[in-house]
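Annex B. Sample input.
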Amino acid sequence: MAQQAEEKPIAVWGAIASNSIIAVAKFTAAFFTGSSSMISEGIHSTVDTANEGLLLLGLKRSKRPPDDAHPFGYGQELYFWSLVVAIVLFGLGGGMSIYEGIVHLLNPEGLEDPLWNYVVLGIAFVAEGTSWTIALRKFLPTIEEEEALWHAIRNSKDPTVLTVLFEDSAALSGLVVAFLGVWLSHQFDQPWIDGTASVIIGMILAVVAFLLAYESRGLLIGESADPQVIASIRQIAEADAGIAAVQRVLTMHLGPNEVLLTLDLRFAPNLVGEEIANAIARVETAIREEHPQIEQIFVEAQKYR
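Annex B, continued. Sample output.
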């Protein structure tokens, strides 16, 4: 996991490249055809591009070293910017798409030749699918054996890959809705269908924004490590001959691959000062070898009575 933290955010860069190109193409198609759903899709891709830029900013700022003002580092700043991404996605992406759809419903205009739309939607689907595949391949190695995908998403502590995965999933869904809106609107000469598709795209973005905000909130206010990691820590500590009991294991994520650990240990009654210190050192070393993401360990040491 520590190694993954040092890797370049390939999923984020891939999403920026695809979304920026797609946004230009979608707005071009909307200009020539007057499609409301294509305008919404252009807004969607523009917002996604800006959001990935915010994620890169969060990644850079979260890697700053600890200082007197922030002795535990700046890792949680990444969670803050993930929350900002969710707010932008909801306000600009979802809100503007719904607004555009309502305006089109109130003032319906027929579509011109939809060929531009079909070409751009096809290219966008391939590009978004590629970006989604990259994000999924970055995420799959983090899934434990026999763990359900949704459970893995809920337990993920890396908002960068998770955000790209959610946004690309919303983008692919939006492209399908936009295609149906354009095709049905042109096929049956009913402009309101295109406006309705724009509203649906906005609602999809709003739902995804809510899910991202919910996940970011849990991480931002302090989320514990995975229960399996906590159980492993307890097992490691109890296996040491100098430890009589493990009272509490408290953990909190300070970043995707940085965990703060506090241990409440009870030591065997025959141990003296230096022996207690050696037992603590053994436990800390064993925990860090098994779980390198645990960088800071604090031990509350008490003799067993």
